[in-house]
Amino acid sequence: MKAEDLDFYLVCRFYIYKSFYLLFLEPINNSNMHSLNNEYIARSCSDSDDKFKMSRYGEFLAGLLNRAINDEFLSDLQSEYTKLFVGPHKLIAPPWQSVYASQDETLFTRSTLEVRAKYAKYGLKATKYLSEADDHLAFELNFMLYLAGLINENLDLRRSAIQDSIDFLDDDLLSWIESFIQRLVSYPSIYIEQTAIYLKDFLQNDRKFLNDILKT
């Protein structure tokens, strides 16, 4: 792969990670809709389809944001996020890795501490880390987003950051995303289940892409 082509795909994956991070961080609202409705995200999804297979996701996201202009539909999206990830009732699909790593679905377990240590290697700390488990899906995606930025900007650290990205995908995100999706199947979803399916596909394709880089 030519150097300029590699740099292009590395930038694309940064923006794709950013879109998933924003979608799982909080309910869609007027503020993050502006960030999601970004030409760089749209172009990254379509122009890198040969590597990441995200053109359909880009179309899905564009259609979702277009419909979210309607206040009633936007309210439905926000209600879905709240019911699934916030409460007040028992959560159908808790967005924390530790839930899926323990039989009793406990938060702040060994897996949480292991994820925290991986953040700390880069001097990072999860937002509200004392009250919100570090292995929240949005936080894990934000870590991958940080590494993606580092891979783009620091050639000296590129290979080590790529290896850490692969390890994090294997040990963390890809270890529980399928179980997370299976929980979502039981809920009549407008967008979160489909977003999670697209995310799983992207994570798998991204792992292959990064592994291919290290082989060269």
Q: Your description of this structure?
A:
This protein has 216 residues and is mostly helical. Helix content is 72%, strand content 0%. The chain has eleven helices and no strands. It has helices spanning 3-25, 30-36, 39-47, 49-52, 55-67, 71-85, 97-101, 110-120, 137-153, 158-184, 192-215. α3 (39-47) packs antiparallel against α5 and α9 runs antiparallel to α10 (158-184). The longest helix has 27 residues, at 158-184. It is globular, with a radius of gyration of 17 Å. It starts with a helix and ends with a helix. 35% of the residues are buried.
Beta strand % = under 5%
Radius of gyration: 17 Å
User: Total number of β-strand segments?
Assistant: 0
Q: How would you describe the shape?
A: globular
**Spans where pLDDT lies below 50 across 5 or more residues:** none
Helix/strand order, N-terminal first: HHHHHHHHHHH
Q: Give the biggest sheet.
A: none
Distance between the termini: 9 Å
Share in helix: over 70%
Secondary structure class reads mainly alpha
The average pLDDT score comes to 93
Helical segment count: 11
